[in-house]
Amino acid sequence: MKRFMVVMIVICTLYLLTVNLLADEQQDNFQAPESEDFSSLIWSEAFDKLQAKFSREYGFTDWKKIDWPALYNQFKPRMNQSQESNDFTAYYLTLREYVHSIPDGHVHMNSLSEIDNRYIGGGFGFSIVKLTDGKIVVIWIDESSEAYTQRMRTGAELVEWNGCPVQAVLNEVSTIFYNNSATDEDSMNQRVRYLTRAPIGTKLSLSFKNLNDEKIIKATLVAYDDHGESLKKTYPATIVSDGLRELILGVENPQNPPESMVEKKILDGNIGYLKIWGLLDADLTDSGEIVSTLGLFKVAIEEFNQKKVKGLIIDIRNNVGGLDSMVADMLASFYTEKTFYEYQSCYNVLSGSWEIRPDETREVNPADPGLYIEPDEPFFGGPIVAIINSKCISSGEGLAMGIKNLPNGEALGFYGTNGSFGLVGSGAQMPGGIEIRWPYGQSLDKNRLVQIDSRDGIGGVVPSVRIPMTLENALRIAQGEDVELEQAIEFIKNL
Predict the structure, then answer these.
(1) DSSP of 248-259
(2) For 418-462, what is each residue's pLDDT tens digit?
(3) Where would I find the beta strands (DSSP E) of 125-174?
């Protein structure tokens, strides 16, 4: 079953765009959900259709305790009011809040930047981060900004925001213009990032203490059009490109998209390094040829074995996901025994229930529909460190899980993975050029329990080697220094 971040326009084979590629006899009793088009309906009617389809097909209603009737009662009056007043902005915002009520990174609604920028188009000339000790500190400041003129410097600790304790204000920050957060950890990090965003012209009174100075300084600032600079100066944007995800989402002028799904090199200390951006085959250079991602991976492992590397670092930060079967095939180079990977439980339109289905890229085995890691060449048995973050989503999280479960494997990072491991494929086209998508299936462990997907704010793959977000680390990150990679290198060197 395919698992994608969103509409995967870089997918290069038609079978990846098909929900079911099972044998004919298997298709008689199963039909996966398909996207539907409600775009010709009036807004209120389209919302009713969306609610019915979404609540029926969503794969984690029970797991995440989603109260669909309550959501409908909350948002339907607002949708009706938007319809009556013919207020497209109100309609759009209502949909965004509705969609963001589901704590799942696989639940997605496309953005309309011309509206978003009315609400988050302004910045105050600085970026902040929450440290492991709970402090909110400035990690970047525009030296041409009024904030700098009013004596704010990097390392400053925020004390009050418009007269209220900054910690209390964070709880009220909206992140509806960003992707859905599945975990409490990611939700807090996004609230911190978006605290510094506001409509252009918004006035702010601020209190802060500069580094090594207990004197509280007050400043009055006005939000200006900084072209989203404060968001670009936070982790992981300062370290890891998000160009592939932007390419997939159709963002104009994506920032530094990779030329290959797999990048390899030998680091100092004879350590192998693999950067894996996604788990699917693609033509990222418009060469006209589809490149095998698994093939690139195996060639790299063979080269690392020839050079007898001391260890292997697999960088899956910002990994967009892809095929579970490809993950299992990659992990086959690290496992010595056949190992269970997952069951895939999918919504069957014909029966109206969820059913265990075999992976669509594998030969059907009616007696055992599970997906397994089956040892294969080339084999690498040395130490492996997977570098992860909250933008490692979907099948990328499966790769992190598989590495962490190895006796010689570790998952390292500041934060855990996204916590969104569902099977994506359904959705709805809404009026105004809006598309909403969601997962219609689950990944289950050997006990047939949901794995990785978050519940009650907890989920994802948690680092076995967690790096603290100290002030020193935060300031280094803001300068573009890759602290996580450095720590991974040191970890292997010290073995």
Answers:
(1) HHT-SS-SS--S
(2) 999 999 989 999 999 999 999 999 999 999 999 999 999 999 999
(3) 126-130, 136-141, 157-161, 164-165
Residue pLDDT, tens place only, 57-91: 999 999 999 999 999 999 999 999 999 999 999 99
CB 71 within 8 A of CB 47: no
Phi, psi dihedral angles at 125 (to 5 degrees): 95, 10
Residues 351-376: what's their mean pLDDT? Answer: 90
Cα separation of 128 and 12, whole Å?
39
Within 10 A of 217 (CB to CB), how many other CB atoms are there? 16
pTM higher than 0.85, yes or no?
yes
Q: What is the C-alpha radius of gyration for the chain, rounded to an integer number of angstroms?
A: 23
d(C-alpha 170, C-alpha 195), whole Å: 7
Token code pair at residue 321? 């996901």
Alpha-carbon 179 to chain mean position: 8
Pull the structure tokens for residue 339.
Answer: 């190992």
Read off the tokens for 469: 């977000």
DSSP string, 322-372: EEHHHHHHHHTTT-SS-EEEEEEEEEETTTTEEEEE--TTS---TT---EE
Q: Could you tell me the pLDDT band of residue 28, with boundaries at 50, 70 and 90?
A: low
Dmax (CA) of the chain: 75
Query: How would you classify the pairing of strands 339-348 and 353-357?
Result: antiparallel
